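fyi for ur records
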Amino acid sequence: MKKHYRKNSIKRTNRRIKTPVKIYVEGQTEISYFKHLNDLEYFTNLAIKTVKGPFEKFIYDTNELKYLIVDIDNKQSKQRKEYDKLTQITKDERVFFNNYSFETWLLLHKNKNVKKVLKHHSYDLEMKRTYNVISWSENKSKKQLNKINKQISKKDIKVAINNSKVIENHIPFTNPSSNMRKLFDELSRLNMKGRNNV
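which gave:
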């Protein structure tokens, strides 16, 4: 007896293989933010994984596509000394910073002019004005993080990249300052490379 097979009995999948990228960060705020970027598919050809941990993990990671984001806090801080040490050891441009902290980058998504900050709680007022989150420095809950991310669109990310140019070239690490634009330029380059390889 001749067997009849349904056309749909064999499913073919054409899943795009994304380039794995690892980003080392200091806290949950950064982890939540880059997860949001993945959800938005901002970089369609990249699979970004964030790792929270000491800087030493970054140094000994053999992965070529690895990056690190650090908070400088201020130019005399322990973080600044760690940044200098890392850039000397790695001899490359895979270490990125925000001064005072990652909140500087978050605020750039909505504001062109970011004020100087000397303590973490100094962000509370601007975070409330910008994202309507309460007592941010003391309550970085999942609910508050989600509330921020929901207000960040693909367009806002491009706004942040453009706004960061104003404070990018402040030397030595003037408060506020950030070179996150360079990280996004690098990720965009990798994303385009992945698209060309499809």
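Strands lie at 19-25, 46-52, 66-71, 95-99, 177-178. thats all i got for now
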